[in-house]
Design a protein that fits this description.
This protein is α+β, with helices and mostly antiparallel strands. It is built from six helices and nine strands, in the order αααββββαααβββββ. The chain is about 30% helix and about 20% strand.
Length: about 220
């Protein structure tokens, strides 16, 4: 009788333990874990935002870069990484094109500029693939291969949400290309606060550094 009772208690304990394990769902936001732990566990970004505010994610290192933007509609995250150690690089061929300033449009911009370089047949233009947009579109860095050059508004968000608060590891002394262009004039940005913290018009004839971005 005692043996039967002990066996029953053991079986009950095992099932109770299994039930507890099944209840613990790591994909649900857990306030006892860090934001990065929650993200790595697959917790919904918007659940983290609801609990802690979107500003709590800015500047955190995740997914190959520093979080600088969260889409509050679908939870999409954008991260930025400095790639200026590669050196300053040329824009590419100088041709007329308008590309989007909107946050998140950098990938399409980057693809359009690479296509524009491929189709431009002007004389005395840049020769080869060692120009900013082709370098980044072909880049595999930190185990990711979906990098692109940020749009004008994305670069502004990188400054406003990360760099200006002292976070990130960006180079304040480098002028970075953006993928936004009006006619023949591209936008560039220097993250040094003494420059005013605004994206400004640059020149396709200059050499600038690379800020690279992912969206996921």
């Amino acid at each position: 009788m005692k043996k039967a009772l002990l066996l029953l208690m053991l079986v009950s304990f095992i099932f109770t333990s299994c039930d507890k394990e099944e209840v613990l769902d790591l994909t649900i936001f857990n306030s006892e874990l860090s934001i990065i732990q929650n993200l790595n566990n697959g917790a919904p970004t918007l659940d983290i935002v609801e609990a802690l505010g979107v500003e709590s994610l800015y500047g955190l290192e995740f997914g190959g870069g520093f979080i600088f933007y969260v889409d509050l509609t679908d939870g999409t995250i954008m991260v930025a990484a400095d790639y200026s150690d590669f050196g300053v690089v040329a824009w590419g061929d100088v041709f007329e094109m308008d590309t989007s300033p909107s946050i998140g449009d950098g990938l399409l911009n980057t693809q359009q500029i690479v296509e524009g370089n491929a189709n431009d047949n002007g004389e005395g233009e840049f020769d080869g693939d060692n120009y900013a947009f082709k370098v980044v579109l072909d880049l595999e860095y930190r185990n990711y291969d979906d990098w692109f050059i940020p749009s004008k508004n994305s670069m502004q968000a990188i400054y406003d949400n990360v760099s200006s608060t002292g976070l990130g590891n960006f180079n304040d002394n480098v002028a970075y290309w953006t993928s936004t262009k009006e006619g023949y004039s591209p936008y560039v940005m220097v993250l040094d606060p003494s420059w005013g913290g605004f994206v400004n018009f640059g020149c396709c004839c200059d050499m600038s550094g690379l800020m690279i971005v992912r969206k996921f």
